[in-house]
């Protein structure tokens, strides 16, 4: 073998190696290859005669010095370790160094290689981050929750501490997403995470466990009252408006709470209890919280309810309740809204809040609406035969039904069967139903109007439709959301909003209905504002068809 050419070969190999290669003698670099110079952002010439410590981050100089000494003094042949280097341009890199002792020209020298691990390190920490954190909100994710919660539970068990699980989601989140788009939905999630984080204590852990579901694990508290205080603070924190593009709106949370050890011996039981409590909170109305109570049911009860709902729809257990709508000028009955009640053989009469979310989740909501429409037509037919039909009946049309492919053709079929009775049916649509695909919505509503149906916008004021939208809609009625009527006697803001809606409605030739008037004062104010119709507990709660006839049709 030709030695000369062989050493040439080594030289070429070393010079062009993809790892940094060095020789240190008497605490100076005496040889560096170009990769090593590149790692430190110096030229090879600049690096020669520099000391390794000069190139080390000052916090790691101790480690480097110790290792160099170890190799030189204790004759440890091979050594490897990591340290942070300081480049010429000030950047810090994570390096891994291998070194071995040699004698060169009679002097002890260290030869070795250096690998830049910064990118690998970044990638690993990024992976760790992605695995444990939610990239949208920066909160811990479900994976981390699963790990961490077990750990917190074990600790609580050992120390006989309490823990509380707060499970919550954003009321009507789907509506926001559907009507304003996913970008807006994302903004709402991020803002919610920020606003809630601000009121949490250091010892609380906060996770986004999926979609719009969040969880807080609360440690270090003594009484349930402290948990309630935190829940209230969370709700309060959200009492601010969230801005998305030109929209500004409010959100609320439904919060379910369960406490260890009372409501579950392990994490999975505790989570189930919080889930049931959240379901209860939703049932009680939005923006509520509920602490798990043993008799509020278990999640298996919810599953049972699913089975029963299928059967209930088939067996005709959906019942119409009617709530009168009163003409404010004459005090006469003008119409009634049909509101569904589930006459469940085991559980009694259930309110929509208990089973509509379930029906929606199960994809049965449009069927339920069709059953209601059919039954309302039968009712209209009956009153028509009795010559008592001088009022309208409103039905609620869900998102699912309105956007059902066959919606219009189904309504056309009803029209064939019941012809002019359509004039007595008001289809209530929420603003966001009309916003999803505005052009399509206008087309359908126009066609519905053409064959005789009356149309109303329900819960007006909670959505995002503008005067411009309203003008294009072929509607007859505007129903002002109950939320604006509630404080109308005390909140001058609400009063002004209601007045503005009434005036705007009249400008567009619409009948304006106020929902949820409960007392005389509210009715008086609504009259003064020229509102046309009132529907509310002041006149009557929704009642059975029989009660309605007895009270209003004689
Ligand atoms: P909604 O369409 O806004 O109906 C009005 C709700 O307000 C009814 O609740 C009614 O009982 C309640 N309400 C009326 N006046 C007052 C009042 O003065 N004070 C208070 N506190 N409440 C009042 P309900 O019957 O529980 O229905 C709740 C919601 O369920 C309805 O809100 C509607 O969105 C939905 N819903 C009811 N029936 C149906 C249905 O057949 N199909 C669909 N898709 N949704 C329905
Ligand atoms: Ca309604
Ligand atoms: Ca309403």
Question: Main attributes?
Answer:
554 residues, alpha/beta, eight-stranded mixed barrel, 22 strands, elongated, binds ligand C2E, binds calcium ion
Strand order of the largest sheet: 13-14-16-17-18-19-20-21
User: Helix segment count?
Assistant: 22
The small molecules bound here are: ligand C2E, calcium ion
**Helix percentage:** 40-55%
Per DSSP E runs of 2 or more residues, the count of β-strands stands at 22
Overall average residue pLDDT? 88
Strand content: 15-25%
Cα-to-Cα separation, first versus last residue: 119 Å
Describe this structure in words.
The protein is an alpha/beta fold and 554 residues long. Helix content is 46%, strand content 25%. It has an 8-stranded mixed barrel with strand order 13-14-16-17-18-19-20-21, surrounded by 5 helices. A 5-stranded antiparallel β-sheet has the order 2-1-5-4-3, with helices on both faces. Helix 7 runs antiparallel to helix 8 (182-199) and helix 8 packs across helix 9 (224-237). The longest helix is centred in the C-terminal third of the chain and has 21 residues, at 365-385. Residues 296-300 have low confidence and may be disordered. The protein binds ligand C2E and calcium ion (2 copies). Residues 458-459, 479, 515 line the site of one calcium ion.
């Amino acid at each position: 073998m030709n030695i000369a050419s062989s050493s040439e070969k080594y030289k070429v190999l070393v010079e062009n190696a993809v790892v940094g290669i060095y020789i240190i003698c008497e605490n100076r670099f005496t040889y560096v290859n170009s990769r090593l110079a590149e790692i430190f952002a110096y030229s090879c010439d600049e690096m020669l005669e520099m000391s390794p410590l000069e190139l080390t981050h000052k916090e790691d100089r101790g480690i480097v010095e110790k290792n160099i000494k170890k190799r030189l003094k204790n004759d440890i042949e091979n050594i490897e370790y990591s340290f942070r280097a300081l480049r010429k341009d000030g950047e810090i890199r994570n390096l891994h160094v291998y070194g071995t002792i040699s004698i060169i020209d009679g002097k002890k020298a260290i030869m070795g290689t250096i690998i830049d691990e910064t990118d690998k390190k970044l990638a690993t920490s990024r992976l760790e981050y992605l695995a444990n954190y939610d990239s949208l909100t920066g909160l811990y994710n479900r994976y981390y929750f699963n790990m961490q919660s077990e750990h917190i539970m074990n600790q609580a068990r050992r120390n006989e501490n309490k823990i509380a699980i707060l499970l919550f989601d954003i009321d009507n989140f789907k509506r926001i997403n559907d009507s304003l788009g996913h970008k807006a939905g994302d903004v709402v999630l991020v803002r919610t995470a920020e606003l809630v984080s601000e009121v949490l204590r250091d010892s609380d852990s906060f996770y986004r466990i999926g979609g719009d579901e969040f969880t807080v694990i609360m440690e270090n508290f003594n009484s349930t009252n402290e948990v309630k205080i935190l829940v209230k603070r969370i709700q309060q924190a959200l009492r601010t408006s969230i801005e998305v593009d030109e929209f500004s709106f409010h959100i609320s949370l439904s919060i379910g709470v369960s406490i260890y050890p009372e409501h579950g011996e392990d994490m999975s039981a505790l989570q189930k209890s919080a889930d049931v409590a959240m379901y209860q909170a939703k049932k009680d109305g939005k923006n509520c919280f509920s602490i798990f109570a043993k008799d509020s049911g278990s999640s298996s009860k919810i599953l049972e309810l699913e089975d029963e709902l299928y059967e209930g729809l088939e067996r005709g257990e959906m019942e119409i309740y009617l709530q009168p709508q009163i003409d404010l000028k004459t005090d006469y009955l003008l119409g009634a809204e049909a509101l569904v009640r589930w006459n469940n053989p085991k559980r009694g009469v259930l309110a929509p809040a208990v089973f509509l979310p379930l029906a929606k989740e199960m994809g049965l909501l449009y069927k339920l609406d069709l059953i209601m429409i059919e039954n309302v037509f039968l009712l209209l037919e009956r009153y028509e035969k009795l010559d008592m039909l001088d009022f309208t009946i409103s039905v609620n049309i869900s998102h699912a039904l309105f956007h059902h492919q066959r919606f219009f053709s189904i309504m056309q079929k009803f029209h064939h069967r019941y012809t002019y009775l359509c004039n007595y049916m008001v289809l209530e649509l929420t603003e966001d139903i009309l916003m999803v695909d505005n052009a399509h919505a206008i087309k359908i509503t126009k066609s519905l109007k053409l064959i005789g149906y009356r149309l109303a916008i329900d819960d007006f004021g909670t959505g995002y439709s503008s005067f411009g939208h309203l003008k294009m809609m072929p509607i007859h009625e505007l129903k002002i959301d109950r939320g604006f009527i509630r404080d109308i006697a005390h909140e001058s803001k609400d009063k002004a909003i209601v007045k503005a809606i009434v005036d705007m409605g009249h400008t567009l030739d619409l009948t304006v209905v106020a929902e949820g008037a409960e007392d005389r004062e509210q009715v008086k104010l609504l009259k003064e504002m020229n509102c046309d119709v009132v529907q509310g507990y002041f006149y009557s709660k929704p009642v059975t068809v029989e009660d309605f006839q007895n009270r209003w049709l004689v």
